[in-house]
Amino acid sequence: MSRKYADESASPTDLPGGRVGRPPVTSRPEILAAARRLIDRDGWDKLSVRRLAAELGIGTATLYRQVRDKEELLLLLLTEYAGRTRPPSLPADPSERIVAAASALHETLADWPWAAEVLTTDGFVGVLGESALWTVEAVVAGAIDAGCTDERAVEIFRSIWYYTVGEILVRARSAKARAAGTRPAAPDGFFGRIDPDRLPRLAALGDRWPELAARDTYTAGLHALVSGLLSAG
Amino acid sequence: MSRKYADESASPTDLPGGRVGRPPVTSRPEILAAARRLIDRDGWDKLSVRRLAAELGIGTATLYRQVRDKEELLLLLLTEYAGRTRPPSLPADPSERIVAAASALHETLADWPWAAEVLTTDGFVGVLGESALWTVEAVVAGAIDAGCTDERAVEIFRSIWYYTVGEILVRARSAKARAAGTRPAAPDGFFGRIDPDRLPRLAALGDRWPELAARDTYTAGLHALVSGLLSAG
DNA sequence: CGTACTTTCGGGACATGTCCCGAAACTATC
DNA sequence: GATAGTTTCGGGACATGTCCCGAAAGTACG
After folding, report:
1. What number of other Cβ atoms are within 10 A of residue A183's Cβ?
2. Which of A188, A201, A223 shows the shortest C-beta gap to B141?
3. Does the domain made of A94-231 have the CATH classification 3.40.1370.10?
4. Spatial contact of A158 and B213, defined as CB atoms under 8 Å apart
């Protein structure tokens, strides 16, 4: 019971007066700043809970008193450092507005390699923080302006969210795999070995798949998705 | 050099004669069968490299001689046990055919909770195995039949792939988070605290977000995506 | 000041993914 | 059969995410 994490939505150190007990020696902002320092110095891959605790000069378990788990740490970082985008001037046309907002979200997240590993729970809305919620607002508002119901508007946002998260995830993982010692994308001559009777189109593509799959697809697909969503609306 | 993993695309134990050196005591099929046994008995969460090695009665490091890493293990499992779907009779209409194929892929993957954690590299094509490639074939063929170029057809497949992977990932992670002790989706009263001047539509949704976000969105979004993709041609 | 209560502190423990490296085992060739 | 060459074997090591639990350090109230 007393061991359970406080269910406070705000960080303990943010609470106003009236606290009881020993005050924490390290605040959440300090933790995030230290994490940022570590990342800037040694890169993402070197960020670990232990290292971070060492950087802060506290015990590992102590850090876990301020941050529920690594996922939360990454989410907080994302909110703090990536979520600070300001709404650009969005187009008036609902469809274009949605596309612009989604693109902005995509661009922001794409800069943070681990974003897709983490930003995928229901909680993303709460976690993105107000600083990036304008994206959600813009999509929902665009859909409603285009004549959709509230239900449909949220559905539309979620479809766009799936698509965006999926693209980022696939691209990030692919890049990582490519960097970390050529895990072969497809076995050599893979398409050459495809049975042309059962899979004629793929066989016809032959070895062009890797080349074709290397292009950027996000934007075109996003336009298609939005226009399809709105016209089904 | 002699320590490096062989770059053979086929499993070592599949190779024909002519081997040199001590033969492995455990073959890849045995490994997969044991993993399957372990999963059926103790569930996904309990599957670990160490447990698997113990189940096989071999050392952990020995297992790593047959399987590059855990990701490869999961991919092999996915190919072996989830990739065995047979192509259903697909509709003749290109658009409907694409939707049907994508839905089948989605359904297959959705049954495997860790699928999205793993099936996201460029290599998915090689890894899915011929047993599930009919899905890719159906989408590409549908797009080409609808008048798309090869390039566009592959782009379309990738858009659908992003969308599908994203949906599975988000849903799987959400379910996991929900199961593992209510990490609050959005802080209590979150939308109540939204500034109605800056985010009017979200504020208007009020507390309905969780309810609205709980519905199934995949199918509707997929239809929209496909029709958008095809009409953008 | 002293006592009761509440909270944090942090050493250490556990399970995990991964891999080094010397020993063992097998094949091919003489 | 001996020897060289090549491969696997597996104990142990390392770093990691997570957490238990006794000790320490604060606050509130008398």
Report:
1. 17
2. A201
3. no
4. yes
Residues A179-194: tens digit of each pLDDT: 765 555 554 445 556 7
- Whether any strand D atom is under 7 angstroms from the Cβ of A137: the reply reads no
The Cα–Cα gap between B95 and B190 comes to 41
**Residue ranges of chain A that CATH labels 1.10.10.60:** 12-68
Taking chain B (233 residues) in runs of 10, the rounded mean pLDDT of each run is: 34 51 88 95 92 95 93 87 77 96 90 78 61 86 96 93 91 77 53 77 83 86 96 78
The per-residue pLDDT for A183 is 56
The interface predicted TM-score (ipTM) is 0.86
Using DSSP, state whether A122 is helix, strand or coil. Answer: coil
Task: Say which amino acid occupies A131.
Answer: S
List, in order, residues 6 or more apart from B199 with CB less than 8 Å away: A130, A133, A134, A137
Q: Which residues of chain A have pLDDT under 50?
A: 1-16, 187-189
Tokens 């959600």: give the residue. A136
pLDDT at residue number A3: 31
Q: Which residues in chain B are contacts of A166 at CB distance < 8 A?
A: 161-167, 169
Q: Which of the four CATH numbers 2.40.40.20, 1.10.10.60, 3.40.50.720, 3.40.50.2000 does domain A12-68 have?
A: 1.10.10.60
Nucleotides of C under 7 A from a protein CB: 5-13, 15-21, 24-28
Give CA–CA dist A203/B126, Å, rounded. Answer: 13
Chain A residues whose beta carbon lies within 8 Å of the beta carbon of residue B153: 201
The pLDDT value given to residue B75: 86
Contact A140 B226 (CB under 8 A): no
Give dist(CA A134, CA B232) in Å, integer.
Answer: 28
Residue with tokens 């033969």: B23
Residue ranges matching CATH 1.10.357.10 in chain B? 94-231
Q: What is the pLDDT of residues A41-68, one digit of tens each?
A: 999 889 999 999 999 999 999 999 999 9
Å from the B42 CA to the D4 C1': 47
Measured CA distances, A122 to A125, A144, A161 (Å): 7, 22, 11
Burial zone of A3 (CB within 10 Å; 0-12 exposed, 13-18 middle, 19+ buried): exposed
Start-to-end C-alpha separation, chain B: 49
Q: Do A170 and B165 touch (CB under 8 A)?
A: yes
